[in-house]
Amino acid sequence: MPQVQRKPRDDRSAAPAPARLPKAYREDDRSSGPPGEAHFVALDYAEPSPIMLFFQRWSRRISRTARAALIVGIIGFYPAMMIVSSAVDDSPIRFPPTQTWAVSGVGVAIEKIAREVSGPGWAADRPGWHPQARLTALPAWQDATAAALAQHVGLLGSLTAVDGERDPDLIVAANLLAPEGEEAASQVRPRLAAAAAALNRYDTRASGGYAVMPSKRDSLREEAGMFAAWAADDRARLSDRINADQDDWPASVPDIEAFYAAKARAHFARELIVAARDAAPGISLDATLSIAVTRAEAAWSRAAEMKPLMVSNQSGADAFLPNHLATMAYYLLEAEEASRALHDAVAAYRDPGEPEVSAAAGPDASPVP
Predict the structure, then answer these.
(1) pLDDT tens-digit readout, 320-349
(2) How far apart are the first and last CA of the chain?
(3) Residue 88 contacts by C-beta under 8 Å, 6 or more apart in sequence?
(4) Burial status of residue 41 (CB atoms within 10 A of its CB: 0-12, 13-18, 19 or more)
(5) Separation between Cα atoms, residue 32 and residue 213, nearest integer Å
(6) Across-strand partners of 165?
(7) What is the mean pLDDT of the chain?
(8) How far is C-alpha 219 from the geometric centre of its chain's CA atoms?
């Protein structure tokens, strides 16, 4: 009996057939099946370029270095600005050949003011966020410079007084350099510029014969006495700091202020001595006076040229950090003795070409060319 083939029962509960890809995909069988041996042989040469690997490594290194440098730069920017803005200009003052001053001390004073105004700027005028507002050495240097300038201008005023009346421009300059009361807390830079303008007016009038000029001999003699007083005062102040109890290392704020105040006055004294010597070539004709001037210049130069990396007020037995305050005090002792010797030498000196009557004697005194 023949067997009857039965058709498969349509079981609708069976799982549905998987979806087929579109014809376009089914016809492209290039990627079908496992890769052959030729495929792997071709991949042997598919390596990254050594040049690209080199640049990739160095780009990562440069990126990390740049990020680290940025962090360090942000952290160290403010201290770096403090170091850059703390420079003290103690270089010698040299006037151009075309620039002449009727009174050499006035020229030195104007140059000193110009250096501080156009150079680092006046630290006391800076706002609280400025790096210079956090400094110690530069403000002490500038304050002592202004005080020394005011004292020197006052000395010139007393030497040129006529019947007790001082020159008005010198009075204005002295008041602007050393103000009192609320004016002392005002902006310093405008006052310094006005003081320099008043000194320039006086020198211009003096060069034209419209103002009394001090005698060169009287000026140098009185300046030498003033220098000796500066040295004595600064030496006493330094001695107090040397003998004081030290709480800070390597030096306290008062130590730094005392050191740079003495240095500022030493620099100004040295420049005034050099200017007086250059303005009076006859000094070299007298051996005693020439030796006294040279000795005073050398003594004040040693004090003015001290440039410690950081001021130290440690014990003298310290193997690494000396006591800069003690060294400065010793130099000032020599400067004081040399200044007193210069004062006596100038008092005993008589220049045949200079009138015996000084400019401070009255209106009939003849100015010295």
Answers:
(1) 778 999 999 999 999 999 999 999 999 998
(2) 159
(3) 120, 137, 138, 141, 260, 263
(4) exposed
(5) 110
(6) 162
(7) 83
(8) 31
